[in-house]
Design goal:
alpha/beta, 182 residues, 21% strand, 6 strands, 6-stranded mixed beta sheet, Rossmann fold
């Protein structure tokens, strides 16, 4: 049987493709076994210029609920390994007594480092009106303070359901865009 140049080319191409798939599979297997980065998710904060004139007692419990939901969904979707904030409770209380985490010039990374976390998430809800709100997160590298991700979701309606849907939508978007474990 004669070995034509075309046949040799196809054999070479086939081997190259098979080797490429093998390497790709090895890289994927390594990526799947690499440890997921840890994250400290700080309590969501409220940015509301109207709170003095129009107090809303439902916002505190909603902030706590979406913080817990964010932690649960991050862990369930394996976006990050969520750390327990309890060991840094004193530092968190001291920091929030002076200012919000989104404006504290690095105190959020101090909390993350104390907890041994690779990343820190600062979240806040901006209340524009009773019908328009924005759910915002910022993820930073705990060692450098470098911002790795900013995300925002607009909410229409100030209800438990709209806030919860906002968190779910944000997490779903992160999963679809492979924005976890940065």
């Amino acid at each position: 049987m004669t070995d034509f140049p075309l046949v040799r080319g196809v054999r070479h191409w086939s081997r190259t493709v098979l080797i490429g798939f093998a390497l790709l599979g090895s890289a994927q297997a390594f990526a799947d076994t690499a440890p997921v980065k840890s994250i400290a998710i700080l309590d969501f904060e409220l940015l509301d210029d109207q709170i003095a004139t129009v107090p809303d007692n439902t916002l505190g419990p909603r902030l706590a609920a979406i913080t817990a939901q964010m932690r649960e969904e991050f862990a369930r979707e394996d976006l990050y390994r969520v750390v327990d904030n309890a060991p840094a409770a004193a530092l968190i209380e001291k920091s929030t007594a002076m200012q919000n985490f989104r404006n504290c010039n690095g105190c959020e990374t101090d909390v993350a480092r104390l907890l041994g976390a690779d990343r820190v998430l600062v979240g806040w809800v901006q209340k524009v009106s009773n019908l328009i709100l924005n759910l915002n997160i910022q993820i930073e590298d705990a060692a450098t303070g470098q911002v790795l991700l900013n995300k925002s979701v607009d909410l229409r309606g100030n209800t438990d359901l709209s806030w919860s849907r906002g968190v779910s939508y944000m997490v779903k978007s992160m999963v679809e865009k492979h924005q976890g474990d940065r």
